[in-house]
Each structure stands twice: as C-alpha cells, then as structure tokens.
Amino acid sequence: xxxxxxxxxxxxxxxxxxYMVAAMVIIGGIDNTIQLVARDIGLWQFHFVRALxxxxxxxxxxxxxxxxxxxxxxxxVVLRSVVLAVSMLFYFSALALMPIxxxxxxxxxxxxxxxxxxxxxxxxxxxxWRIAAVSVGFVGILLVLQPDPANLSLVTLxxxxxxxxxxxxxxxxxxxxxxxxxxxxxxxxWLTLGxxxxxxLVALSIWPLEAVPGPDGFVTRGWVWPMWGAMPWVLxxxxxxxxxxxxxxxxxxxxxxxxxxxxxxxxxxxxxxxxLAFFGQTLGPLQMVGVGLIMVAGVIIALRSxxxx
Length: 309
Known about the structure:
Helix 10 (182-206) packs across helix 11. The longest helix has 25 residues, at 182-206. The chain is globular. It is built from 14 helices and no strands. The relative contact order is 0.23. The protein has one domain (11-111, 155-271). It is mostly helical. It starts with a helix and ends with a helix.
C-alpha cells in the first residue's frame, strides 16, 4: 500500500476547488432539513429510504455516460464506502441532536485529522505553520462546540468521530480510489448506507428500544409508517446528496486532500446562513469567533501544504 500512497497522481486544483464549493452550497442547504426529518422518522429508516430514492438517480447518471458503476479495485471501494458510511451515520445523528454549526464544527475536524494522518502514517513533513494551524483549528472547534466539562457527554464527541472517519475516507478516496469512476464510488456509498439502514431497522425490530418523540429519538427509532410528513425532505436529501457527493468525490480525485479539504470549510458559512434564514438559528459571539478560527486554520493548511511547512 505504501507504493500506492507515494505514487504521483495528476492534480487539477482549480477544478477541485470549484467542485467542492459548489457541493458545499448544496450540502449546507439540505443538511438543515435533518431536524425536520428527525421529528417523524429515524436515522436507519432515513438512510434506507434515501438510498432507495438515490439508486435510480445514480444508475441514470451512469447510463448517460458520467461513469461506470463497476469498480476497478473492489476492496478499495468497499473500504472507502464502509468508512464514509459510518462517518455519515455519526454526522446525521449529530445534526438531529444539535444546531448545524456545532455538527459541522465536529465534522470539519477532518482537515486537521488529514494533516495528522498524513504526517504520522504517510511520513510527510509538517512544519511549524501547519502545527500552529492544527492548534488554532482545535481552539475554534472548542469555541463552537462549547463542551461543558461538568456535563460532558458522548453526544459532544459524535460529530468529532464523524470528522475522524471522514478524514480517513478522504485519504482513501485520493490514494486508493483516484482512478476509480466517480459513479462507482457514489454507488458504493449509497449501497453501503442503504444496507446499514436496513440492518439497523432489522435490529430495532428484533430488539426495540424505548420510543422517544422528536429529534432526540432519531437514532433509536425503528420503522415508522406512514412517513408522508418526512417524505419531501427525504427526497430533497436524496437529490441534493447525489449531486453534492458526486462533486465531493470529483474534488478529492482531482486535488490533494489537505488542499481540497479547506474548501469544505465554506459549508460553515452556507450551513449557518441557511439555518438563520429558514430556522432562525443563530451563533453566539464566541461561536462566531470559533468559526473564524477554524476557517483561518484551514487556509493556513491549504497554503502551506504545497511547500510541506
């Protein structure tokens, strides 16, 4: 695997950046709908039904010539799909339990994790500027999440776990799946998320948990019927996610992960703006400072990644 990791892969940084920013405009909007979904159905039903809706769209995109569905290296696509799917389970759980800015702050620890993994496991040099960026980003994350040491719970760590796994999936995408068709990666993700949703529903039907109303019961809720109230939001999620995730995959295939990842920070502008416009969610002064620090850290990482310092 080391030989695969170290090989030179052509990059198109401007195209990668454009794909990522466009994806974040979409993702920042549709992710605000999760709290609406979580009022009526559960996490596992959401992923299962959304995958069923997305599958025909992925097939149609492949048929019109945007990429083949068959992977070149099945094991690499499966590995990426599983890691990314688990990351998304953590992230969507966080979206139902906390404001989108806090969920995003945890998820976007991913560039920091990418930098750390790149240095520790891929043996790439990290200088003082990028070490400082990691420190600044970490402070920003704490300001946005605002964990209370006296009442620290695992819920606070849920989006951070999503960020760590998302970082792994980004590195796998770049170094092990760079030559895969975008459609094969997209199909692998949807198939895995749909399968995990189905398994979760089966498990909850065998070992049902106490029903909790509203978003607090999102993770532990089994199959709910009818689901007409949630259906429009699930459909919007399916369409938006297919488009957004396609663009994210292309971005990571076209650019270096540590450089491409910084453009994902733009969702920390778009997401809270949508939340303010449609739900009245606001950020406190310290949280706004935290968002700024996270974005500064990302810019430093991007600017210094090319020179290794």
